[in-house]
Each structure stands twice: as C-alpha cells, then as structure tokens.
Design a protein that fits this description.
CATH superfamily of the largest domain: P-loop containing nucleotide triphosphate hydrolases
Order of helices and strands: HHHHHEEHEHEHHEHHEHEHEHEHHEHHH
Oligomer: single chain
Strand content: 5-15%
Strand order of the largest sheet: 5-7-8-9-6-10
CATH architecture of the largest domain: 3-Layer(aba) Sandwich
Radius of gyration: 34 Å
CATH class of the largest domain: Alpha Beta
Distance between the termini: 49 Å
Number of strands: 10
Number of helices: 19
Helix content: 40-55%
Largest sheet: 6 strands, mixed
C-alpha cells in the first residue's frame, strides 16, 4: 500500500492532475448554486473550470427536473431549489469539495458481466464488504496468469463510474491514463514485489522455535533452535568468501563446504541465508521432500537464490538436481548459488564429478571450501566459550561465575565441543573433553 501511494505521488505529473475532470454531480451542484444566487452560469468566468461538460450537465439536470429551459435560459424548479439549498446547508453554505486523490489496495470483484446497478454495493456489503471495485478485464488477467502458471500478478484500475448507468462522470480517458501512471510508478518503485519467489515449502530457514519450557541439553545445543547467537568472528573468512561468491557475475555456481561434524557448518549456513533473505534473496535449505518438478521450478525463479543442500554426501537424488542446475538456460542472469554441505570431501565430490560431464564442469567452477576448526592460537576459543556460556546461563537462569577452562585439546576446535563445555560449566559438570560427551548425555537423560 505504501509503495503504491509513494509511486503515485512521485510519478503523477502536475499536468495530468490539472486535467482531472470534475465529477458531473459536482459540476451540476455548481450550476444550481449559480442559479440560486441569481447568476447566469453561461456567462460565468468559472464555467470552463467548474462545468466542462456543459451540455451533458444541462441535460442531466433537466431530466432530474431540477431546471427547465425557457427562452435560452435555465430556471430553477422547486425541486432543484430545495435540493441545492439542502446541500449547501449540510456543507456550511459551501459546495462539497472534490474527493482527494487516493490509491486503495484491496480485492476487486471481476467477471464477464457488465454491471449497471448502483445497488450492487449494498448487496456486496452483505457478503464481500472489503471489495473496493468492480471490473470485467481483471478476470482475463487472472485467468491468463493461472493458465500460464504466472506466480504473481497485479491489477490496477481507476474508478470512472459507480455502476450507475445514469451517472456517467466523464472519467474514461483520464481514468485509463491515471491507472497507467500508477502502474508504471508501482513497477519502478516495487517491481521486485512481482518477481516470483522460491516455491513455498522447497527452501526453509532450517530454524525452529524452541519448545516451550525446553532447556534440556539437546535443545540448547541444537543449532536450529539458535539458543546461542551466531558468533561472526569465528567465520569471518568463510563469510567474506560467501560475500564474494554471491556478488560475482557468474549466474550459476555450485560450491562444496566441507568439515567434520560439529565444526559449525549448519550454524554458518543458517546465519548466511538469513542475511541473504534480509537482502531480498530467496535463500534457505533445500527440503529432502522436494520432487524433480519442484526443483526445476526453483531454477526458473527470477529473484537471486541461494540453496543449501545439507548432508550432501547422503542426499538422495542430488545428482539429478545438479544435472538440472548444469543445464540451466544460458540466458538466465539471476544469481543462483548452490552450497553443498558435507562432512567429507573425497567420496562425495568425486562421485558427483564422475556422474556427468556437465555436472563435473559445474563443480570444477568453484573449489571446495573447508571449514577450519576454531584456532587454538589467540583468544578466539575462549571468546566462543564465554559467548556460549553467557547464552546458556541466561537460558537456564544460572549465575555466571568467573573462571577459565583448558581449551587446548584439539576437540575444542569444533564449535559443538566448545558449546558442550560451556553448557557443562553452567550445569556444574566437568568440561574435560574425555568425559564431556558422556556427561552431557547422562545429563540429558535426567530431563
């Protein structure tokens, strides 16, 4: 709604605003007031502005028996005098002002029948009170979009009458031009809103709201529940690589991200896809339940798209999907990035490369990216530990005593082990790496 109104204000030309017709009923009201106050409307200097449709207004007033023509002059009838006096009284002795410009967003009733019944609005209020307009052409646009499988469409129309065959307001030409101006302005302002998004259900953020009251270790340690906020400093190298990769000019790219379990691969991709969604990309994890047809539809979207295939080494049908990606039309210019996430490189990568020549060419375009352990040198491991400790202490409503933990063991190069050590410290358990996993599992059983 805001975008439509903003586009309307930005694009609407002053010249077109000056050409806006006065509705016939307002022209007629001016005509009657002139007669009431003893002035001849035909000789008024305001006539070109206030009563453009002179002949039509006179005929309309005559048929309504508000005036009669006598010797080339208009004379108020008793009915006309009563009407204009009542109107002026209701509006503080002023003529009603013309309605301001408005852009309204809402449902339009549309069909193949021309409606010439001013009572239609009262009928619609009984069942479809939110309808803001009626037309015939919108149904054709909607049906064409449905038949051609166009995922999004928009109808912009300007009101030129009120379904009343006796009240032609002379707006036809102006209304068509105004609707076109608003449409062009809307497309310039928010054309991205009509771009098809990734099909619903294919890409997901791979995050879940934590169960109410669940603060057991399995919930607290699961990256998908995001109980520990992403710690960017650990993955600055990978994020810089992702930024460059997504910003490159190549329309299509596939890259393998590989690292041992618990190193933080899923956590990184959850964070990165969220950043991209905030930039109007379609980004998320590819559901295992998608069909070949859904995946083909995913490749036809025109918004920038980032697809994460988690556990790529065991993903059924991955070869077929990559073959579809490899044969994406060369004319497709919208960025499409496929991130394969796996624990081991050799078997997964080589198997995919041997499957198809075109798939091999696609994979060879971007070298695999290993996710390194959290380095021992420097303060980073301790910072990750402290970051997780604070999050777990808050979730468990525990005090946060000062203290240090020996994090030199190579297992603490994995994000999961650092988080387990932080949780163990919060729970008063030993963070020693040899017994850490056993202690956490036993602690889980007590919940």
């Amino acid at each position: 709604m805001e975008a439509a109104c903003r586009a309307f204000r930005l694009l609407f030309r002053p010249k077109l605003a000056a050409e806006r017709p006065r509705p016939r009923d307002l022209q007629a009201d001016w005509f009657l007031r002139e007669l009431l106050e003893g002035r001849d409307p035909a000789g008024s200097a305001e006539k070109p502005q206030m009563c453009r449709d002179w002949n039509e207004v006179i005929e309309d007033l005559r048929q309504r028996r508000y005036i009669r023509l006598t010797g080339g002059h208009s004379v108020l009838t008793a009915a006309g005098r009563k009407y204009i006096q009542d109107l002026l009284y209701r509006h503080g002795n002023e003529l009603p002002a013309q309605e301001p410009w408005r852009v309204r967003v809402g449902p339009i009733g549309t069909g193949h029948n021309l409606v010439k019944d001013p009572g239609i609005w009262e009928e619609l209020k009984k069942t479809e009170r939110h309808v803001v307009g009626l037309d015939m052409e919108g149904s054709v646009i909607g049906m064409t979009a449905h038949v051609q499988e166009v995922p999004r469409m928009i109808v912009i129309k300007a009101v030129m009458d009120y379904a009343d065959p006796s009240r032609e307001h002379g707006f036809r030409s102006f209304a068509a031009q105004a609707a076109a101006e608003v449409l062009i302005g809307f497309l310039r302002e928010r054309g991205d809103a009509l771009r098809p998004a990734a099909p619903v259900g294919i890409l997901s953020p791979n995050t879940w709201p934590p169960p109410s009251g669940a603060d057991n270790p399995a919930t607290l340690l699961n990256a998908r529940y995001q109980r520990v906020p992403f710690f960017k400093a650990v993955r600055e190298t990978e994020i810089s690589l992702l930024e460059a990769w997504c910003g490159s000019k190549e329309p299509t790219g596939v890259r393998l991200f590989v690292g041992p379990g618990g190193v933080g691969k899923t956590r990184l991709m959850i964070h990165w896809t969220k950043l991209l969604r905030d930039r109007d990309w379609d980004a998320g994890f590819l559901s295992e339940q998608t069909s070949d047809e859904d995946q083909a539809l995913l490749l036809r979207v025109v918004r920038p798209t980032f697809v994460v295939v988690d556990y790529a080494e065991s993903r059924p049908g991955l070869e077929r999907f990559l073959r579809q990606v490899a044969f994406r039309p060369a004319a497709a210019q919208t960025p499409l990035r496929i991130a394969l996430v796996a624990r081991e490189k050799a078997d997964c990568w080589e198997a995919l490369r041997k499957h198809d020549v075109e798939v091999a060419r696609l994979l060879d375009g971007c070298p695999p990216q290993p996710l390194a352990p959290v380095p021992l040198q420097g303060p980073l491991r301790q910072e990750v530990f402290d970051h997780a400790f604070a999050a777990f202490a808050k979730a468990r409503n525990r005090p946060t005593p000062a203290g240090t933990v020996d994090l030199e063991d190579e297992r603490f190069g994995r994000m999961l082990y650092l988080h387990m050590a932080a949780l163990a410290a919060v729970e008063g358990l030993s963070p020693a790496p040899d017994t850490l996993l056993k202690d956490i599992l036993e602690h889980e059983q007590r919940f």
